[in-house]
Amino acid sequence: MTAISPTATDRAAAAERDTSRFTALRALLRNKLAVLALALLVLLLAAALFAPLVAPHDPNAQNLLARLKPPAWADGGSRTNLLGTDQLGRDMLSRVLYGTRVSLLVGAGAALLAGVIGTVVGLASGYFGGWADRALMRLADVQLAFPAILLALTIVGFLGSGLWYVILVLGFTGWVSYARVVRSEVMSLRSRDFITEARAIGVTDVTIMRRHLLPNVMAPLATIGTLHVAAAIVAEASLSYLGLGVPKETVTWGGMLADGQLYLGTSWWVAVFPGIALMLTSLAVNITGDALRDVADPKAYRR
User: Fold this and answer.
1) pLDDT tens digit string along 269-285?
2) Half-sphere exposure of 159 (CA within 13 A, CB side)
3) Shortest CA distance to 122 belongs to which of 145, 140, 107, 147?
4) What structural domains does the chain harbor?
5) How far is 41 from 283, CA to CA, in rounded Å?
6) Is 262 helix (H, G, I), strand (E, B) or coil?
């Protein structure tokens, strides 16, 4: 019986993954709504990276003589403050731009942390099974028994406010969905021929999980990750709105919403513009996640 070459097996698996990725990319580009959402996300990322260069004013600079100035197109508005000013005379456009930085950082950081934890747990649980699977899934069940936002509020209230605390809390409370999806995928793959062949030639369990299982679960992971980014952005805004997230001196959309709620009847722009930014960002991320989910399913683009 001829031994199976691991190099040949790896090349064949890599070629199959490259073909699938190319087909998925073409399907994604045909989705005009997804392309528009991606363009918006690129624009938001550029605004976050270059906020100090494109923001017309210091986001925390106060000017009480210009407080609650309306947007430039409204009566009493000025081109100096295109989106108006808040109750302390701070420029709304600059604050919205700087708020993008915190929201995207928290969303991406929390999704990355949760993804790493959930992927490791899901791989171990699905591949080894037995007592390890039962123990890890019972741990996931215990965490799911607590509402995520309530658990986040409890942990943040105990640890204190801070940008990195918020990222850690949202990451550690969001790993379960990753773990369950990865576990399900791995359980369906571990009995496939290429896994059996890898075991037969003496490939270690860690190598099998890293080189053969992990690449096959990246598509669903990307889908869950994009959706988790949107959820983390909204969660961070909720925590900041309640005063338990990022400190007040840091510009966040949630903090701006909290400041503007008292002025909705007289100066609507103080709360409306950060609310629109939050809505558009979450919508763009969710549309992108839906598109990735569709192209990750072979039935969605199979001819």
Assistant:
1) 999 999 999 999 999 98
2) 17
3) 140
4) 40-59+67-301 (1.10.3720.10)
5) 10
6) helix
